[in-house]
Structure formats: C-alpha cells, structure tokens
Amino acid sequence: MFETIRAVAMDFDGVLTDGGLWMSANGEEMKRLCIADVTGIGLAREAGIKLALISGDSTPSGMGLVRRYAERMKIKDVYTGCHDKAGAIREFAKKEQLELREICFMGDDVIDLPPMALVGLSAAPANAQKSVKAKASFIAFQNGGFGAVRELLDAILAAQKHA
C-alpha cells in the first residue's frame, strides 16, 4: 500500500494543526504545529516524495499561515481557500505528472472525503471525524497536530526502504 506512493497531499487544519485557533484581543490568529511533523516533511522531501498542502481556509490570516508554513517547509504545491479538494488533487497530479494511485491524501473532516476517494492511499489522524476514519486506508495513532503526519510519512518511507 505504501510502496507505490510518490506524493503526499495534506489538509492543514486538523491534520498539521490540532484544529484549535488562538485569537488575541487585537484579532491576531495563531495555530499550533508539531515539530515532529516538520521533521517528517523534511525527511520525505529529501527522499523525493512530492508534497502538497490543500486547505479549505479562505480567511486572509488562515491562507497566510498555510503559505508561510509551505514556504518554511519548501512545499511548492499549495492550494488555499480550496473547497474543491478533489479538483486540487487532480490539478496536483497533472502538474507533477503523477497517477492518482501514486498519491496519498491525509484529511480529517467531511470536506476531505472527495480527495480521499480519488487517491491510492487515504489517511486520517486518530481524531478525525468518524466518517473520515471509515474511509481511510491508514489511521494514525496520533492526533492531528501531534505527529499524525510524521507517523504517516515514516510508514511510507519505511515501506520504501528510506528509513
């Protein structure tokens, strides 16, 4: 199942974050990220795994956070304010010359079900919505924002003998 994966696309909120939102009195928004996921993404990128972020957040601050994270992680394929995540997966596959079966998508909520149905490997964090976990081929032991992405990437890299 993991051996044929050449790319991993991820939702942002609830997958790379814990799904929470901190807001200051002046309206500044912040989200919690996991350093283990940061390390896993770096290892996957070094192993040649293509990466994409596909976020439904359409607020200026949310889109800015996703873009800043992508820049830090050197992820060039970023889709923000995206409500057609299946379309984004198709676009990512075409741009990167991938078959859909070579892509893994990790999501946590109902908006993530359409892309999960398209790809070769669907994944979810432990705290994903029940309907999402019911459709996932891989369910992490970790929650979103607490190493679920690292767990998925480690499994892919181990199966491909990179780890």
Task: Walk me through the structure.
The chain has 163 residues and is of the alpha/beta class. It has 6 helices and 8 strands. The protein has one domain (7-159): 3-Layer(aba) Sandwich (Rossmann fold). Helix content is 37%, strand content 16%. Helix 1 (35-46) runs parallel beside helix 6. The mean pLDDT is 95.
Topology summary:
Elements: E1 7-10, E2 22-23, E3 29-30, H1 35-46, E4 50-54, H2 60-73, E5 77-79, H3 85-95, E6 103-106, H4 113-118, E7 121-124, H5 130-135, E8 138-139, H6 148-159
Parallel strand pairs: 1-4, 1-6, 4-5, 6-7, 7-8
Antiparallel strand pairs: 2-3
Labels describing this entry:
single chain; 163 residues; alpha/beta; Rossmann fold; six-stranded parallel β-sheet; two-stranded antiparallel ribbon; 6 helices; 37% helix; globular
Q: What is the CATH architecture annotation?
A: 3-Layer(aba) Sandwich
Biggest pleated sheet? 6 strands, parallel
Mind telling me the C-alpha Rg?
A: 14 Å
Straight-line N-to-C gap: 16 Å
Strand tally: 8
What is this entry, summarized?
This protein is an alpha/beta fold. Helix content is 37%, strand content 16%. It has 6 helices and 8 strands.
